[in-house]
Amino acid sequence: MSRKKKLLFISLPILLIIFLLFAFSRGKGNGEQNSSIKVSKGDIRDVAVALGTIEVKYETSVKSIFSGVVKKVFVEIGDVVKKGNPIFEISPTPTPFELASVRKDATVAKSQLENAKKDIERKQTLFEKELISDKEYENIQQDLQEAQSNYNLAKQRLDLMEKGSAKVGGTSLDAIIRSPVSGTILSRNVSIGDPVVPLTSYQPGTELMKIARLQDLLFKGVVDEIDVGRLEEGMKAKITVGAIPDEEVYGIIDIIAPKARNKEGATVFDIEIIVTEKGEKPLRVGYSATADIIIDERNDVLVIPEGAVKFEEEKTYVYLANGEKREIEIGLSNGLNIEVVSGLSEGDEIKK
Questions:
Q1: Could you tell me if 50 and 220 are in contact, meaning their C-beta atoms sit under 8 angstroms apart?
Q2: Together in a domain, 163 and 63
Q3: Residue from 118, 108, 61 nearest 87 by CA
Q4: Which end of the chain has less neighbouring CB within 10 Å, N or C?
Q5: pLDDT-derived band of residue 205, with 50, 70 and 90 as boundaries?
Q6: Domain extent at residue 194
Q7: 170, exposed or middle or buried, with CB in 10 Å at 0-12, 13-18, 19+?
Q8: Are the beta carbons of 65 and 92 closer than 8 angstroms?
Q9: Phi and psi torsions of 21, nearest 5°
Q10: What is the domain count for the chain?
Q11: For 76, which DSSP code?
Q12: 234-257 mean pLDDT
């Protein structure tokens, strides 16, 4: 091998090493420049996080007071109803025992009415001859009125059970279930032809549907035992709804449970947050959501990354970009960023 080739063979690795060292030193210099940041102003919040769902404050379960089958459905899920609007028509299907009992009541009431009429006819003559007092005659008249009312009621019940309708004076009664409240239909559990068990003192009855006011919404969720001690009723919360994350939804804490419960191995407390501000899109019952409960906040203050703060002998420091060590006073932290109360000015450069 010639001398020139030997020199070239030795020089190439040396040149490559020099190039790599130069590139590394340049990259290191750039990294050091990028490791500094400018102190700026911003907002910082200390929050406790609760996980839960959107629910209604009041929910009404509609049931029937008589047995039968669903003959007609007047409303569907999502419809808005007012108190008194018809929602179901029930075709009565009484049991033989129920029918026999109502028929017996009607027969007894009719017999009592006939006896009361005969009694007042007999006492009428005596009253005209002044053989009985005014008070006694008034009592007989009241007995007749009560017997008439009892018979009317028994007859109406019998007509409703046998025919599905009845008349009270000029008013028609029917086996129509009307909405007990104003609100929106959340669910409907029966259809035409389905049997209906009545609500009584010894049985819960068939739940026909649920109605609620969607104006009264809540966030119901749980918060960890670590955070519950920092919470108070009336605190503000920002609610992020999973299905509509861009909507601005806010509320205030209404209830904090006094007793913990165990959920998936963790100790949690139930909380309720009243929704006070909604976005443009409708909130639907059952949406999963996260509530950031604002425990403390600072607006338009100096903020730096918490990792840039050094702790030495109960004092706090940062290092400026030029290497100077600067003592500072810190304030509120959210775990990522921290407030600078004193020691720095806006625009100062510090090392991360």
A1: no
A2: yes
A3: 61
A4: N
A5: confident
A6: 59-211
A7: exposed
A8: no
A9: -65, -40
A10: 2
A11: -
A12: 93
Do 168 and 239 reside in the same domain of the chain? no
Q: Are 173 and 165 in contact (CB under 8 A)?
A: yes
Q: How far is CA 112 from CA 96, 109, 141, in A?
A: 24, 5, 14
Whether residue 143 sits in one domain with residue 66: yes
Task: Write down the pTM of the prediction.
Answer: 0.60
Q: 310 burial class (0-12, 13-18, 19+ CB within 10 angstroms)?
A: middle
CATH code of the domain containing 247: 2.40.30.170
Q: pLDDT tens across 259-318, in order?
A: 999 988 899 999 999 999 988 888 899 999 999 998 888 888 889 888 889 988 888 988
**Residue 241 pLDDT > 90, yes or no?**
yes
Q: What is the DSSP string of 152-207?
A: HHHHHHHHHHHHSEEEETTEEEESEEE-SS-EEEEEE---TT-EEPPPBTTB----
**Mean confidence (pLDDT) of the chain:** 82
Segments in 35-163 forming alpha helices (H): 96-128, 134-163
Compute the average pLDDT of residues 177-189: 92
- Quick count: other Cβ atoms within 10 Å of Cβ 7? 10
C-alpha separations of 210 from 59, 62, 63, 71, 246 in Å? 7, 6, 9, 19, 30
Q: Is the same domain home to 177 and 262?
A: no
**Using one digit for the tens of pLDDT, what is the confidence trace for 140-175?**
778 888 888 887 777 777 776 666 555 555 544 557
Residue 7 has pLDDT above 50, yes or no: no
Residue type, 107: T
